[in-house]
Amino acid sequence: MEYNLADLFESVVDVVPDREALLYVDHPGTGAERRLTYAQLDAAANRIAHHFADAGLCPGEHLGLHLYNGIEYLQTVLGALKARLVPVNVNYRYVEEELVYLYRDADLAALVFDGEFDERVAAASAQAPALRHVVRVGSAAAPAALEAVPFTEAEASGSPLRGFAPRSADDQFIIYTGGTTGMPKGVMWRQEDLFFSGLGGG
């Protein structure tokens, strides 16, 4: 096993598949709880990973996550890691100018976004020629301004099984800085370095 975040997650799943991995309370909405075991989270991440591969996304391409914290965020990060895509965080407070900059600077090939941001994402994505695959979580706040694959449809289209190619500790994760003194900057992390950085800070 490499010190790859997807490999490490899968090793935990294999040991404690029925242990609860995630509890999410939808405070802004209904307040309803959703719980997933490690096996359920693994299957959900596998589904979205296979969707990305079936959509033609290749290992090493960059996937933006323009989402609130929630199950779909974690599922998408894990799915990206499993498919050897490079996850890129997108601050949900960004306005159009910042989004255009980030989409271009990060060379995003794909984006998963919350439907609440539909208009901003539509305006920015029109100015990001490398962006070719877009997935919407939830519904657009108004009539949709952007053609996107619904997340539920993307999830349903993928297999819940693994079946992925071998991964590497050199696979990357890009984290954008806050941009308090200018535009945000993308910081590239090797997954092994990110893993040991977490251990060192613990």
Structure characterization notes:
This protein is of the alpha/beta class. It has a single domain (5-201), classed as Rossmann fold. It has 7 helices and 9 strands; from the N terminus they run H-E-E-H-E-H-E-H-E-H-E-E-H-E-E-H. It has helices at residues 5-15, 38-54, 71-82, 96-105, 118-125, 151-157, 191-201; strands at 20-25, 33-37, 62-66, 86-89, 108-114, 133-137, 149-150, 172-176, 186-190. The strands form 3 sheets. Strands 4-3-5-6-7 form a 5-stranded parallel beta sheet, with helices on both faces. A two-stranded antiparallel sheet has the order 1-2. A two-stranded antiparallel ribbon has the order 8-9. Helix 2 (38-54) crosses helix 3 and helix 2 (38-54) packs across helix 6. The longest helix has 17 residues, at 38-54. The protein is globular. The model has no long low-confidence stretch (mean pLDDT 90).
Could you give the topology of this structure?
Elements: H1 5-15, E1 20-25, E2 33-37, H2 38-54, E3 62-66, H3 71-82, E4 86-89, H4 96-105, E5 108-114, H5 118-125, E6 133-137, E7 149-150, H6 151-157, E8 172-176, E9 186-190, H7 191-201
Parallel strand pairs: 3-4, 3-5, 5-6, 6-7
Antiparallel strand pairs: 1-2, 8-9
Helix pairs in contact: 1-3, 2-3, 2-6, 4-5
